[in-house]
Each structure stands twice: as C-alpha cells, then as structure tokens.
Amino acid sequence: MNFDFKNKKVLMRVDFNVPLDKSFQITDDTRITAAIPTIQKVLEDGGSVILMSHLGRPQRKDGSMDRESNTLKHIIPHLSELLGQEVKFSEETVGEVAEKAAADLKPGEVLLLENTRFYPGEEKGDEDFSKQLAKLGDIYINDAFGTAHRAHASTTVVAKYFDKDAKGFGYLMSDEIENANKVLDNPARPLTAILGGAKVSDKILIIERMIDLVDNLIIGGAMAYTFFKAQGGKVGKSLVEEDRLDIAKELIEKAKSKGVQLLLPEDSIIADDFNKDANFKTAPSDDIPDGWMGLDIADKARTAFTEAIKNSKTILWNGPMGVFEMPNFANGTKAIAEAIAEATKNGSFSLVGGGDSVAAVNDLNLADEMSYVSTGGGAMLEFFEGKELPGIAAMKD
C-alpha cells in the first residue's frame, strides 16, 4: 500500500459479513480481525477510515428490508474493542447523513457506514449509488477478498471513480492473491488438491482446472458418491447427482489421461438416516446397502488420503470430507485437517479455503498450523477456476 494517507479520507471496502447469534453477538470474528492491519496502517499514517461492508441478505422475499437483524451497528462494540478506539457509525450509507459524517471525520478516526445491501443499487452495481459512495473518500482501498467475485457497487463499480494512483488493495487482499498464486504459479511438487462438499455441480470447474495443475486430486464429501455411481458402484441412498454421472466419468478419464492420481474414499462411514443419532457402520464406498448413506470417509480412506497429503509439498483444501457438524461424522474432516497441519509443520505450503473447511480448522484450533487460511469461499473457488474476479479487475482500469 504505497499511498500517502496523511490527512486523507480512505474509503475502504471490508468484509464484515460475520455470523451472529440470536442476541446479535459475533460468533466468529475472523473476517473482522483480518481487516484490522489495513485499517491500522491508514490510521498510523495520519489518515481517517470510512468502512463499508454488507451483512447477511437483508432483502426479504416481499422486497422489504430486515434492518434489525442485518444492521452493522451490531459490529460496532467489537470493532471498537479491536481497534482500541470508538468507531463512529452512520445510519445511512450514502446521502447527506453519510456525507456529513465523512466530512467531519478527523485524522485517526474511523467511521462505519450502514449495510451497503440496504440499498438495491449495491447488488445491481448501480452507477449513481457507486458515485455517491466515491464522494465520501479521497482514496479507495478494497480489502474484501470474500466479495471480490461480486460486481457490486462497493466492491467493483466504485473503483472507476478514483484515479489509478488513488485506489488499491489492502493487506488482506494482497495476501489472498499472493497465497493463491503460490498454488497456481510454479508450486512446489507434489501438489495435492483436496476437494469436498456435497455437489459435483458446484465444483466441476475447479475439478477440471485442478486436473490440469495437480499431481494428486482427493475427492471426499457427498460428491464422491456421484463418482462411485458413475463407475457402476452401489451407493444406497447417498446423495447423488444423477444428471452429473457422465461428467463424473469424463473427469475420471481426464485425470487418467493427464497422469493425475485421483483418490476417492475406499470406504465410508454410513448411516441409516441423516441425523446425529443415526445408526452408523463402515462399508466399502462402492457397495453401500439400500437404505444407508455415506456421511463420512472411513479408516482406509483416511489412511490413503493422509499418506498422499504428507507426501505433498503444496496442498489446497476446499470442502469437508463428511457431515462434520455431526460428531459421529466429523472424524474424516478432522483427520484431513490434522494431516495438513503435520505436512505444513514439515515444510509444505498449505492453503485452506471455503467456508466449511475454514470452520473445521477453526473448530479444531488448527488454523494457526496452516500456511494460509483464506477468508473468501466463493471468491477463492472462482479464482482457482481461472475466472477474473471483478473486484480485482476493477483496480486495473
């Protein structure tokens, strides 16, 4: 961030879209703490900061706004505590109230604007709304990697109203891009990607891209059963995307032709119902009895996956191995997290991204043992799919 922030008002897009409990207390502040270094840099250099973010999906189906649940006011006490100073708040995001609050801001002060998504112009990428936002600051900094894949007003369009030398990325955005590129550009090999989650359809593009890049591709989670069924396996009532069976076959063939080792879970923890108290046992993943479903990877799969991970020099992990929210089906995800932590300790580079994977490493207190934990789930996926993210592209104009 090579800017002279002294006496400047910095309009900064952050990602404060954090989970809140029923009493509106923050349950995971990772995204807020990730933005603190950039905010502090501006303040230390004699500038003031105007923060903008969205929170939740405030628009109801009838078009009205759920303001009470999604107001950024809920964030103020914790943000003030993290910064060690009182953060000011504007009840409006644009307009007279916001403009006066921004104009009155003194060097060293921080102002948080109300939820950008309270305005339809945000998600539409509206020019007029973007122009009103741009009026508030002298410099625009985007430090919200988690929303970089959205062409919204505050993440993308607003940038066009700042000169090239008056806009840039914050520390978090720079770190996210740099660490993602460690996987994409000349990674240390072997390179292993571990992809989990429920649906092949959500991950087709990243699976295809990874087959072009990696030495080992590990597939776990419910989407593995679509691959087993595609090969003629019996998967009981496991989640399967019937309309993706041909694509799964093609991906298996593509991996073979590229010499990529595609690892599917040899065995599974299967259950007779989708709930935490269901009966469960182990079965081969391609021979699951009728009425049973795969909810986690079992011992043989954990051993094979762990071995591949420990022999890797670069590791990308996106998506859990099972229904890790239920204790009986969390051990596969836990085994993967522990194997990655061990490989990292032994000198490998590891990047973890995607909401569920990040939640898992946080739950297991292993986040500090990974090389880098991304704050952007959808954004990271799209970055690895090879798409140019609008929030990044906007800085080039």
Tell me the fraction of residues in β-strands, as a range: 15-25%
Dominant shape: elongated
If you average the pLDDT, what whole number results?
Answer: 94
Strand line-up across the major sheet: 3-4-2-1-5-6
Cα gyration radius (Å): 23 Å
Distance between the termini: 17 Å
What structural class is derived from the secondary structure elements? alpha/beta
Percentage of residues in helical conformation: 25-40%
Could you give a short account of the major beta sheet?
6 strands, parallel
E-strand count: 17
**Poorly predicted regions:** none
Q: Please work out how many helical segments DSSP would assign.
A: 15
Detailed description of the structure:
- This protein has 397 residues and is an alpha/beta fold.
- It has helices spanning 30-44, 67-70, 76-83, 96-103, 120-124, 127-134, 171-184, 200-213, 224-230, 245-258, 299-310, 331-345, 355-363, 377-384, 390-393; strands at 9-13, 48-52, 88-90, 110-113, 139-142, 167-169, 191-195, 216-219, 234-235, 261-263, 267-271, 280-284, 287-288, 293-297, 314-318, 349-352, 372-373.
- 37% of the residues lie in helices and 17% in strands.
- The strands form four sheets. It has a six-stranded parallel sheet, with helices on both faces.
- The radius of gyration is 23 Å and the shape is elongated.
